[in-house]
Design brief:
Elements: H1 2-11, H2 25-30, E1 35-37, H3 40-46, H4 48-60, H5 62-91, H6 97-121, H7 123-151, E2 155-157, H8 174-184, H9 199-216
Parallel strand pairs: 1-2
């Protein structure tokens, strides 16, 4: 399920535009005969936990958003005269290419440094989003299985993962999985606990620790002379 959810997590705020493909009541009553189609990005984007967190985050992290916007405006104000001068010097006859290159380097450095600073300011926001998404991810597999059992489905396909050209409405289980997810996780905690790290970071650290431990182990007994 973790691999299935990867496109969902990468999409970020764009997920809010994902549609829920609701099957008609008549189609639901007909049964699926073992096969279903589920759009996991649509399930996540339309889940109560995700939508509530997206609505609460600008309020909870208003200080970070305001600080980032203020700093962004300051960086833009710093860059504007440099960009204006660069464009003017570049348009001049016999422009000094070395001086232009130096100006371009300075502008790029300010832009890159500013972007890193903004990311640092908004780091708590990004951590909050990762925390909410992980809570949803932890319940998504159970939601899919619960919906499959209720519909008698043994095979579920995700159109975002494969090349499903067409599927009749009776195969669509997106709403079913969404209902199960909302039951399992009505809401998600918005603010991660102190010291919390995303799953990818935790797994990377665990792998590094395992490798370091293996490298520090004494060599096994020699088989020579046996």
């Amino acid at each position: 399920m973790k691999k299935i959810l990867q496109p969902v997590l990468a999409a970020g705020l764009m997920l809010t535009a994902a549609p829920v493909l609701a099957a008609s009541p008549a189609a639901s009553q007909q049964g699926i005969k073992g096969v279903g189609v589920v759009s996991l990005p649509a399930v996540v984007a339309n889940s109560n936990a995700y939508k509530t967190a997206e609505a609460q985050r600008p309020v909870t992290y208003k200080a970070q958003y305001d600080q980032a916007e203020t700093r962004r405006a300051q960086i833009a104000a710093q860059l504007q005269p440099l960009i204006t001068k660069f464009n003017a010097d570049r348009s001049a006859p016999n422009a000094n290419q070395q001086a232009l290159q130096q100006q371009a380097v300075q502008i790029n450095q300010i832009q890159q440094s500013g972007q890193q600073e903004l990311q640092q300011i908004l780091a708590p926001v990004a951590l909050s989003r990762a925390y909410v998404e992980e809570q949803i991810e932890d319940k998504l597999n159970d939601a899919v299985q619960n919906a499959a059992k209720k519909r008698g489905v043994t095979l579920i396909l995700d159109p975002t993962q494969g090349a499903i050209i067409y599927a009749d409405a009776q195969y669509n289980m997106t709403q079913d999985v969404l209902d199960e997810l909302n039951t399992l996780l009505p809401s998600a905690q918005l603010v991660p606990p102190a010291g919390w790290e995303p799953r990818a970071v935790r797994e990377q650290k665990a792998a590094e620790a395992q490798q370091a431990g293996a490298a520090g182990q004494p060599a096994g007994p020699s088989t020579q002379g046996r």
